[in-house]
Structure prediction request, 172 residues.
Amino acid sequence: MRQRKRPAVGMRVKVGMTAALVLAAIVVLLQMLYRQVHASEWTMQDAAVKQAYEQTILAKAERVEPFVGELAYEIIYGTDKLGQRIIVWMADGDVHTEYETDGVAEDAIVKQLRTSNPKARLMRVSPGKLLNDYVWEAFYKQKEDDGVLRYYYNYYRFADGELLDTFRLSLQ
Prediction:
């Protein structure tokens, strides 16, 4: 009976080390690509936060989200010096600040959408601006009666939660 030759332990170690190095190189390259792709967005967000610190009562920024309407906004969530929660809308030439308590809460908008449209699958709710109104934008999808899946945007006035408009996206 012949015994099979087993590769030397040194060879297995070399193959394992090579695979680990290749994997590490791929991870590093993907991380560099991710940073390069997002660098301009992060730079814009940092500039918006800096401007908000200078022009508003914002004392601590917690997160920044983009909103694109007539203008491109950076929506900054944070707190003032007393720790009260605020939202800042920042765009070229337009800076607006609201205490969260001065408007309808995001949770109330979610509840209002789900009550009025139980078939809706909510994707996100975010502050924005529609014409001259600061709003909550609710993005959702739902199946129509004919089985077609459609996407919608509902706009609710920030101050009182009134539904201002609904945009239905076309299928194309």
Remarks:
- The helical segments are 9-55, 106-116.
- Strands lie at 60-68, 72-79, 85-91, 94-99, 121-130, 133-143, 149-157, 163-168.
